[in-house]
Amino acid sequence: MAQDWACADAFKDHYYPNGFVTIFGSSRIIEHNTKGDPAINAANDALYQQIRAFAKHWTERYGTSYPILSGAGPGIMEAAGRGAREAGKSIGYTTYYDRVAGATPDPNRFYGGDPTKAFAKYQGQDILTDGLIFSSIAVRESAMIRHSAAILIAPGGTGTEWETFQILETLKSHQLSGVPIYIVGDRTFHWASWDARLADMVLRTTLDKGAATAGVEFIDNPEDVIERLRVRLGLP
User: What's the whole-model pTM score?
Assistant: First the structure.
């Protein structure tokens, strides 16, 4: 874990001193979704393309100063990587999966612990230009947050939920400051259950109202983040 931190900080400080625009989101929201309810599939299809468009257009304008960083996997991470790679630079922080002896590799994790296949591809083509493989998933998550100049959070599963609450907790504890946080995707459609969970915490007095989302913006379309973020980062 110490080696993970040392290498990650050296990588970021030497090559990308300004930090990254980091995108978090599901590994299972893919380009063409067919497993869920038709309305959900359509919403997920649209979100994938919106993330891809955001990453491409941001990279075209500001990628040399603030590259896009993703978790280097499939799904929303793939959308971010594809968009950024289409316009130039695309960075990925990944980790090892499926290393347990005898485990059947999860096709969603795509490489079964083989580091030569650690970074996701799209139809056999690279979608990342640079990145790191972490030994510890916990350090990888923390490094993605700590190395961020701005963060976009798209809907996801348990991994994204973990990342989201870790981000919000670092904000609450003032260990993360001055970093714009955008929760993207239609709030009513994608985030209703998350809002309900926070409301339940407030009801039970385990969370102060508004504490978890202070300074966080909800944005339906990720592309609408570009102008807001340009202003926040003082870019031309």
Answer: 0.92
